[in-house]
């Protein structure tokens, strides 16, 4: 459990009406950044003080995070931060890697010029976040890039299957880039991805997107004590 800084609490007080939605993002960020660690009980009271809210929106946010797989709701114990296992990641990552590869192949052929330009904009902004060392912003833009490529593939079945597994690896995708070397390698891989998209090289783009996720799994194996 983390200590509460009451001076920080005033600056973090939420004023917008959609408290549960905003709290969901804030608590998700605490989990992804490691402030709330796997297996740890989510400190509801400390969160209410930190963000200046009642327990009701905090609990609503935790229900959303439970549906996304970030926490487990345990009777008489409250919410515990989920503890993804390497076995689970080794099960899911090859699936999402294959789906991302297929999305890349299709998007290279079907994306409009405006969609390619949008991905380029996200990519350039992601470079800025990397230079600033802003991991949350980097990850947000990273997600936008992958979502935009998936949308440009224009395949509802592919998109539906992707959504079924994407939340299960969201935490792991973030953790995979925490090591400085891997973060730099991931950015290099994205440079190659945007070049293939702009060249409309579907075969190369599909291969790059698939290998991008395979490399993330390798990074996780190292971080989680695998071979």
What does this 3D model show about the protein?
The protein is 74% helix and 4% strand. The protein is mainly α. The protein folds into two domains: 76 residues, Winged helix-like DNA-binding domain superfamily/Winged helix DNA-binding domain (Arc Repressor Mutant, subunit A), CATH 1.10.10; 138 residues, GntR ligand-binding domain-like (Four Helix Bundle (Hemerythrin (Met), subunit A)). The protein has a two-stranded antiparallel ribbon with strand order 1-2.
Brief characterization of the structure:
The chain has 227 residues and is mainly α. Helices cover 74% and strands 4% of the residues.
Within CATH, the superfamily of the largest domain carries the name GntR ligand-binding domain-like
What topology, given as strand order, has the largest sheet? 1-2
Q: Identify low-pLDDT runs.
A: 1-11
- Average of the residue pLDDT scores: 88
Q: Please name the CATH topology of the largest domain.
A: Four Helix Bundle (Hemerythrin (Met), subunit A)
CATH architecture of the largest domain, by name, is: Up-down Bundle
Helix content: over 70%
The number of domains: 2
The assigned structural class equals: mainly alpha
What spatial form do the alpha-carbon principal axes imply? Answer: globular
Q: How many DSSP H or I helices?
A: 10
Number of DSSP strand runs: 2
Q: What proportion strand?
A: under 5%
Radius of gyration of CA atoms, rounded to a whole number: 19 Å
Helix and strand succession?
HHHHEEHHHHHH
CATH class of the largest domain: Mainly Alpha
